[in-house]
Amino acid sequence: MTRSVPAIVILGNGSLSTARRLQQVYPGALIHGLAERVDGADRVYHEFGATLRELYQQDTPIIALCAAGIVIRTLAPLLLEKGAEPPVLAVAEDGSAVVPLLGGLGGVNVMAREIASHLDVAPAITTSGELRFGTCLLNPPSGYTLGDLELGKRFVSDLLAGETVRIEGSAPWLAQAQLPEDAQARLAVHVSHAERLPAANELLIYPHSVLVAVSADVTDVPNVVRQALQRAGIAVQSLACLLAPDSAMASPALREAALELGVPLRFARAEGGACELARQAIGPVVSITGEDTVAVALSEQPLDPMQIGRARGRLAVVGLGPGAAELMVPAVKAELARANDVLGYETYVRMAGPFRADQVLHCTDNREEMQRARHAFELAAQGRSVVVVSSGDPGVFAMAAAVLEALHESTDTHWHNVELEILPGVSASLATAAQAGAPLGHDFCVLSLSDNLKPWSIIEKRLDLAAQADLALAFYNPISRSRPWQLGRALEIIRQHREPGTPVVLGRDIGRPGQTLRVITLGQLEVDQVDMRTMVLIGSSTTRVFPRLDGNTWVYTPRSYGDKLTPI
User: Cα dihedral sign for 176, 196, 215, 2?
Assistant: First the structure.
């Protein structure tokens, strides 16, 4: 069974040394440390329970360096029924105990042995079958699938009750197990790709030794595949992957078919019909049967889909939010975790980390947006999983527009075959507004005061019209060394339409260390109070302020222009 990279979760600095030792066992694992208690963690979290439950629901293996009871109580609400679950282990802070808690069918005992061996302790494995036989019959290794879990439980129960077993077919991982073998045994472990009805005395295990190739014009792919397997007398559980010509890479029907069949979807250059496609993809096989549209290829050994053809490339353009890890949306975190390559302005790439050793970082200058977008497509067209990072939201003065522009200009079919997704983030204007209250609670306008990509005359016109329209305003890129005068000119235009008492919010580095938030008025606002890292929010005529008990100020713009509302 293929496992994803585990998360190592710790509560205090006392666990950090052991956590670093566990990273030697799982080099890609990140250490999640509790904020204000752990120094030097790879990622910081603020609530143990929410973090553990989120990892569990994302199917991430969990190694928690704390008491087992804490983990049990935390995950208990998610354990209403036993089914597929990620491995969950509790490890003592000093590494003196390793306790597998959940995920017996997900390889938790394998992980427990790996960790215990590295820490030079004995794992606290309590699974009866593994203790007796040295292996979990219900959790075959990668490349094999168990036929029926419920029948399997009865099978193991009979073995534990004293029955013997015979092995039919190739099961090399059982050679070292301490199974009570007998050639005449009633119970049998049957390892084969053949389709058959399970008997009460059999444990059916299917090797992933079958590939089905389909042409681009096949419709109703799942049923076509099932029928082809049935004609060949092959169990659908032995299907390792679905193969299609790369000309069909963007086909939604193929993607949905692979999801329905529960197998990877791979692509290869078509030099003929489906039989030739399969032959070229996997080389020598036991047999290939089929026709031009669909072919079934059978291998002697389990197939590794990663070595067959290539995957459809994926490019995700993501928003990291303003900087704080807790303000990064879960979908973006998951995308970063799966990426082969991460591209972006170096400051933002570093903000997105930490990264695994196998992930490739491509850091560029902030002015090289189009080159970065083209590079991203070149990588994704090779079948890689690529992420382009932006701070805030990628669609707000950031990389999403550049990526789409690069694709729009390109006639390269490989680029257009890439799976492209834009994942939102919390923009700087919204993060700043939330800190202050709700200054953008009614209609508002977002403007960049940078004239690097548009004429200043256009900026002036938009400022004037937005101010006339009584919209609350949010300014990105308000000032820089190369254009120190433009914010002053912008304020001159705004002051023609707004009273001096109009509330103004200045948020600097919101969501990052050292953030500051000030609430002043338009009359008090001076150019030297703002720099390139400041978000400027200017209220409308109805924006209001009132004091908070902590001495700060709430700012909000009511959602109604009622008669009782008067300008401030």
Answer: negative
Q: State residue 546's pLDDT score.
A: 95
Domain hosting 171: range is 144-207
Strands 30-34 and 314-319, sheet pairing: unpaired
Q: What is the CATH number of the domain that holds 228?
A: 3.30.420.180
Say if residue 481 is exposed, middle or buried (CB neighbours under 10 Å; 0-12, 13-18, 19+): exposed
Three-state secondary structure string covering 101-125: EECHHHCHHHHHHHHHHHHCCCECC
Q: Within a domain: residue 138? A: no
The CATH number assigned to the domain holding 422 equals 3.40.1010.10
Say how many domains are in the chain. Answer: 5
Length of the chain: 568
User: What does pLDDT average to in each consecutive run of 10 residues of the chain (568 residues)?
Assistant: 79 93 88 89 89 91 94 88 79 94 84 93 80 78 88 85 90 85 91 88 93 89 93 94 92 93 92 84 74 88 92 96 87 90 94 86 87 96 95 94 96 94 96 96 95 92 96 94 89 96 96 92 95 95 93 92 51
Domain stops at, among 275, 307, 339: 307
- How many CB atoms are closer than 10 A to CB 336? 20
How many Cα atoms are found within 13 Å in the side-chain-facing hemisphere of 211?
Answer: 36
514/457 same-domain check: yes
Q: How far is CA 34 from CA 16, 43, 99, 178, 239, in A?
A: 11, 9, 21, 43, 43
The answer to the question of residue 491 being in a domain is yes
Domain harbouring 19, CATH code: 3.40.50.11220
d(C-alpha 296, C-alpha 206), whole Å? 16
Type of residue at 158: D
Are 287 and 344 in a shared domain? Answer: no
